[in-house]
Amino acid sequence: MSACQGYKSWELHFDAQAPSEHVSRIWSQHHPSPKHAEIVATAPDTWVTLPKGLDPRFRNPCWKDGSTQRLRCMPYYQVIGVSKCGTTDMFNRLRRHPDMAAGSKGPHFWDECPSPPRSACTAPPNGDFDGYVDLFKKGAEQIAENPEAICGEASSNTYTGVYTYVRRSSKEPFEGPELFQDQGGVGDQALERL
Question: What is the pLDDT of residue 66?
Fold first, then answer.
């Protein structure tokens, strides 16, 4: 008897476990790169919005906004797509899991919203990182009810070209990924676990 009996031949089937890592633990262990000031200068609106710490009660990266005490969440995962690669299908399949909170399909923030922000772009009202985080408001409300839930996003074209590597003005010269390499921190630890 086939392990996939009862499933159509085109239907992907596997017994997947929900991720168990709480991002707050990883976040608390992060040590900024020696080039942190340069990185912040590339997109300061991101660093104004990012919290100092994440709420450890939630698996997803979430925190309480200091002024409103509203729960805010960033995506736990991102489907990095290219045009016609199945980004929508992957996102819809992931959404079937009971611990998936509402995410955002196709915000194109990282590949279409320049820094500094100049318009609403895909992250209203200003096209900045604060607006991007607001795209996950419904997911944050669901996560407040289910602390083990996670939300994510999927945008086709995020991985299309080298100029989408970092959110920036298309007129700025690209200096390459060496500026953004992890300096022996969280990224290295995550790769070791894989």
Answer: 83
